[in-house]
From TrEMBL, chains A, B:
Site-annotated residues for Important for tRNA non-discrimination: P76
Organism for this UniProt entry: Longispora fulva
Recorded name of the encoding gene: aspS
Protein name: Aspartate--tRNA(Asp/Asn) ligase
PANTHER family: ASPARTATE--TRNA LIGASE, CYTOPLASMIC, ASPARTYL-TRNA SYNTHETASE
Subunit structure as annotated in this protein's UniProt entry: Homodimer.
Stretches the record annotates as Aspartate: 184-187
Broad enzyme group: ligase
Cellular-component GO terms for this entry: aminoacyl-tRNA synthetase multienzyme complex; cytosol
Enzymatic reactions: tRNA(Asx) + L-aspartate + ATP = L-aspartyl-tRNA(Asx) + AMP + diphosphate
GO biological process: aspartyl-tRNA aminoacylation
Highest taxon in the source lineage: Bacteria
Subcellular location: Cytoplasm
Length: 417, 417
């Protein structure tokens, strides 16, 4: 018999149907018992009259149930299954590390992560990762509609291009290679091919930070586009992308922010003023960012604020300076409720500028040679941004630890499960 | 002035417009010169009357051109730009490792790969990676429509689960970790959460194969689904996915195969017979696969043939045996024109079966413990498959070397660019 999902039962009142799912909860009363079955669509109630029928297996055992659908306004979805024939589809589960039927999991972070295989089944956990999936879907939808091409660039790289200290080493057929910290140069190179590209993939950071906001491996949503006038065009794309990511997540039960059509933009110098910071500061401290977040809400009713013009020296060396306006650059951050959500910039696109910038910073050109070749071969003005998926989701739903929004997090202390 | 794409010029006859792109070709004649500009939409012809105007820069230099659009049936797209004002948007390019304006690149594989940053710009190269992007798009479209959830699982893992010899070691904060050879156990685990999942991501193989079909890193398109009756349901999903991937690639100028609504299915034993092989064989040799490919075309007019029931011993240990039909399993291959395109199977879903199978094979359970926990916690019957993106594209377009369909390939000898 074809399986019916719990959400489809109401359309089958009076019929014999088959459902299948996990034993979410057994409630054994004196004269009758209830079996709550969980499937990917929700919960279904099965009324069991045979004494002892639910004794042989515990919660999370996978069952198939053939039964008759009857209306019962008190049951989940307004229907329940009666006269059931229950078949075990998994081994009977005897012991569980957590109780999934409770409305809140109520376990410590280590338990949550050590037993991810089962804690992820809790509805409160499921919807976090449905949100992640929706965010990725929204990201792609917006970019596909604007003529972007998805690319897949290598994660094993031959040289450690962004500060050797924070890169993982790989034993590569007896030699040494590294795990890519970002697809930065590859996506720039691909602007030379497709003009507009995006990539969704893992990036790796060997930074020994033991904080609630750092992971050793995370998912980076990367965008790069060519033939721009300046970074403002990149910001416009980012605005549409973030709006699409949030739109796609509607209906999952989270309270989500509204992305204004025009996100307010502050120049870095102005941002310092608003935050009451020393005008000589070269970066924004967390307290400054919070003050700017408050300003955005107060003055523009916006949870989002763009800050542009960060001092060039505080940004990655490939950031394009603002011509004639030293020390400012064409780098920007998107703040969400006073926290950095996304960074982006117009990039340098001329080889001579790369060489000069590396020299100014006292960095050797040699390790970058293979990546920089492309800038001698005709690159248009371009820019882009990268969204850290887990950090995005974390901020969107106000999670306190990034590990709560990562399926199987990797950090200084954790490489399993 | 807003930029117009080459493909939009015909709508602007009589107007002054601005195009931008790469100097694809300069053709300097006695009285007039032509500048062919390449952008992401195609080529545009610019008529240059000023002598010497094209002398200062070479092919691949990025230019912006403001000009008047006039109709000329002899020009690409039926229009050309006259009275141009040319602006250089990149440094002038002087030397190129290849000539991109020729219809065929005509370079050796090492040149193609060493100079990928520029060879990828050739139209013949671009469309290969447009095909890759389309294939990924089709993969997602089909699965999204069938209620699958996209997941992102870690690529750094704590134990080498599928034969230690072929796994890359990572120096992980002073300890040893490994690069995931596949998301196999993670996607199975996630069936316990979402029932139907897919993942698109890199996988890593340290196999020292130096062949035209092996990469050290490739993109794996992974699918796993629960509550199946048997592997036939997995094969039905695979059929739809492959059809969607190919449909999405229409219009890129490749001659693409038709995926029949019902792909012919052969049992392994029958396949051996058709191939004229010894009935005691435990696997199909390349010559056998070719014979089966010919059979599919001859008997069913199909480029695709499913072979099911491969002997359990020759498949991964998590493959579900065909009950009561030893030595056969519920593992299958999809052959395309006589070559394996995709492998899949129903998997074991009971912990006891995993333990028994590992014991039979003389393998220790210990390194798998962390992954196998989930099978004690209620897992439904499930199965799935993995499509190697590069190998898929390679076979689809008949490329002779997998490196030709990989943006920046990684192999025994190559970890750059």
């Amino acid at each position: 018999m074809q399986r019916v999902l719990s959400s489809q039962l109401a359309a089958h009142v009076g019929q014999r149907v088959r459902i299948a799912g996990w034993t979410h909860r057994r409630r054994v009363l004196k004269s009758v018992s209830f079996l709550i079955v969980r499937d990917r669509a929700g919960l279904a109630q099965v009324v069991v009259s045979t004494p002892g029928a639910l004794d042989g297996f515990g919660e999370e055992t996978v069952v198939g149930v053939v039964g008759t659908v009857i209306a019962n306004p008190a049951a989940p979805g307004g229907v329940e299954l009666t006269e059931p024939v229950i078949e075990l589809l998994s081994e009977p589960v005897r012991e569980l590390p957590v109780e999934l039927f409770r409305p809140e999991l109520g376990v410590t972070l280590p338990t949550l992560l050590d037993h991810a295989a089962v804690t992820l089944r809790h509805p409160s956990r499921q919807r976090v990762f449905e949100l992640s999936a929706a965010a990725i879907r929204g990201f792609r939808r917006v970019l596909d509609a604007q003529g972007y091409t998805e690319v897949c660039t290598p994660k094993i790289v031959g040289s450690a291009t962004e500060s050797g200290a924070s890169v993982f080493k790989v034993d590569y057929f007896g030699g040494t290679a590294y795990l890519a910290q970002s697809p930065q140069f590859y996506k720039q190179t691909m602007v030379g091919v497709f003009e507009r590209v995006y990539e969704i993939g893992p990036v790796f950071r060997a930074e020994p930070h033991d904080t609630s906001r750092h992971l050793a491996e995370y998912v980076s949503l990367d965008v790069e586009l060519g033939f721009i006038q300046d970074h403002r065009e990149v910001m416009a794309v980012l605005r549409d992308v973030v709006a699409g990511m949030i739109e796609e997540a509607a209906g999952l039960g989270f309270e989500l922010p509204v992305v204004p059509v025009e996100i307010p933009v502050l120049h870095f110098a102005e941002a310092l003023k608003i935050a009451g910071a020393d005008p000589g500061e070269l970066d924004l401290a967390p307290a400054h960012e919070r003050a700017i977040g408050e300003w955005g809400l107060r003055e523009h009713g916006s949870d989002f604020v763009f800050v542009e013009g960060y001092p060039t020296l505080k940004r990655a060396f490939y950031t394009h300076p603002e011509p004639g306006q030293a020390p400012y650059s064409r780098g920007f951050d998107l703040l969400f409720r006073g926290l950095e959500l996304v960074s982006g910039a117009q990039r340098l696109h001329k080889y001579a500028d790369y060489v000069a910038t590396l020299a100014e910073r006292g960095e050797d050109v040699a390790p970058y040679e293979s990546y920089l070749e492309v800038f001698r071969l005709g690159m248009p003005p371009h820019g882009g941004f990268a969204i850290g998926l887990e950090r995005f989701v974390m901020q969107l739903i106000g999670a306190t630890n990034i590990r709560e929004v990562t399926l199987f997090p990797r950090d200084l202390h954790r490489v399993t499960p």
